[in-house]
Design a protein that fits this description.
Shape: elongated
Strand content: 5-15%
Oligomer: single chain
Low-confidence stretches: 1-8, 107-121
Order of helices and strands: EEEEHHHEHHHHEEHHHHH
Length: about 375
């Protein structure tokens, strides 16, 4: 009888664990001073965090490696072997959550996982609530992707982005004219309602764009619906596996898609404003729509939660809970607390960069508000 290889569970040295097809693993992300990975059970909707060492083991559970082989790889990477108790702890954690192929689903009362954000039933109330608009959001998004996904190819996307850039340059050069037009729009109720309706429609396209781009990168859409916090009613589109998309760049593209859609929506109105023979009121209304729509799109890129810009900043920094982690680190650093030195260099650089960037954005927003207010009051 052969001896159990060091670092393997007794009797299970040749066991080849395999994660179930419903299990998703995220990239490494900073959380405070630690590096963590998220694990999600798409069937049960739960998620939890593990450290880099646990992820090293779990990511290799693909059915092709035995516990002994995984243990050897771990020993080469970290210079130590896992004992049987640690192996049993990891296998028990995965098994009781139903994450191993062939394991039963996590029983009621088993280890808790972070609940999925989507409610099982529509959440409705008079002043606030939400309602699903489609029964199968993923299938709906898939149909949309088949219809318009060609726009995401470089041959289409690059010219469209060039047009958007040109539009914003023109808007910046003629900002005074657009501000005057916007001031006049608020004195014309009929045109104001029309512009507001178009901007609302733009927000709906914004949300669908997130879903279509996520679908383009292999993502899934959990819900499409309406959410209201009276008097505000907005559409939403929830990407169920955003943090588990294949690469950081794919996640950034998905987060950026909404603002880009807002700007693409403005292109035909910008063309009318620039080139069509219109009466003064209509032309001014289009100019105001161009300015308000651009502000709407750019506001979504402000890097503060829960905006899309915050998701982008989090991906650029490679962090989860970026804002909270940044505040915690900067407080320690400001007090010269020795605990700040325990943060790895990557974390220190990320939190400093985000903190500095947030301050610069706030200063820029304040300066823009003051400049616009001065322009409107003196015109």
């Amino acid at each position: 009888m052969s001896a159990t290889p060091p670092g393997a569970v007794e009797g299970l040295a040749e066991y080849r664990p395999e994660l179930g097809p419903q299990v998703l693993l995220s990239d490494a992300m900073l959380q405070g001073a630690a590096t963590v990975h998220l694990i999600k059970d798409t069937a049960g909707g739960g998620s939890f965090r593990v450290g880099a060492k646990e992820h090293f083991l779990i990511a290799r559970m693909d059915g092709s490696r035995s516990l002994a082989e995984i243990g050897e790889e771990y020993a080469r990477e970290y210079g130590r072997r896992l004992d049987g108790a640690r192996w049993q702890q990891i296998l028990r954690m995965l098994g009781t959550r139903g994450l191993l192929a062939g394991a039963p689903a996590r029983p009621a009362g088993g280890p808790a996982a972070t609940p999925a954000p989507a409610p099982a039933e529509p959440d409705r109330g008079l002043l606030r609530g939400s309602i699903r608009l489609v029964a199968d959001a993923d299938a709906t998004t898939d149909r949309l992707h088949r219809a318009v996904g060609f726009l995401l190819t470089p041959g289409w996307l690059v010219p469209l982005l060039a047009l958007v850039l040109a539009m914003e340059v023109v808007a910046a050069l003629r900002i005074g004219e657009l501000l005057d037009a916007t001031k006049g729009l608020f004195g014309n109720p009929v045109l104001l309602v029309g512009a507001a309706t178009l901007l609302w429609f733009s927000t709906a396209l914004h949300e669908l764009a997130h879903g279509v781009v996520a679908r383009h990168h292999g993502g899934t859409v959990a819900e499409i619906g309406l959410r209201w916090r009276l008097p505000v009613v907005i559409m939403y589109c929830t990407v169920g596996n955003y943090l588990y998309l294949g690469s950081r760049w794919q996640r950034i593209q998905t987060a950026l898609a909404g603002a880009v859609m807002n700007l693409l929506f403005l292109l035909p109105f910008c063309a009318l404003w620039l080139f069509a023979p219109l009466d003064t009121a209509t032309r001014d209304a289009l100019g105001a729509l161009l300015l308000l729509g651009s502000v709407q799109a750019l506001a979504m890129l402000v890097p503060f939660p829960p905006l899309d810009g915050y998701r982008i900043a989090s991906q650029l920094c490679g962090a989860t809970e970026l804002a909270g982690s940044t505040v915690a680190y900067l407080r320690l650093a400001a007090r010269r607390d020795p605990a700040a030195g325990d943060y790895p260099r990557r974390a220190r650089n990320a939190y400093r960069a985000y903190g500095l960037g947030a301050v610069l954005v706030l200063v820029g927003i304040a300066a823009a508000v003051v400049a616009v207010a001065h322009r409107l009051l003196t015109s």
